[in-house]
Design goal:
single chain, disordered C terminus, 9% helix, mainly beta, OB fold (Dihydrolipoamide Acetyltransferase, E2P), 9-stranded mixed β-sheet
Amino acid sequence: MALQGPIPVTYQMLFPHGCYIVGEVEPVKDFDASTNGRFVQARDKHSGEPVWQVAVMDGDPTLKPAQKTVAVKILSPVQPVPPTATPGMPFTPVLFDQITVTPYVNAAGRLSYSIRVRQMHAATTTPAHRTPAAKEGQA
């Protein structure tokens, strides 16, 4: 099969209604290398870069509450800085670039997806009003 490893997707495919940061950017723990009292940050097995994580809320109004929040892993040599909060908005809209998803079966036996990105930046307009270039994550 020609398709192997992480599957590249666009922001518009993954979050057609936009997404919003609802947590802090944190390092992902390497559970195999970490010991009691010694934290080791996870590294991407393909690029070797440190892995960071941020919780985002999907803007899709049809999702059930339990499906709205997902973790997005960011591959970056330094801790990514979230966009500045938008005045008057309860959550900060965000865009991601160079997105891949990796399907896996979770502990409950259900299909899940690991989302990895290379860049995070501010969303300048609402998802429905972005230009075609912005829909591809090049805002």
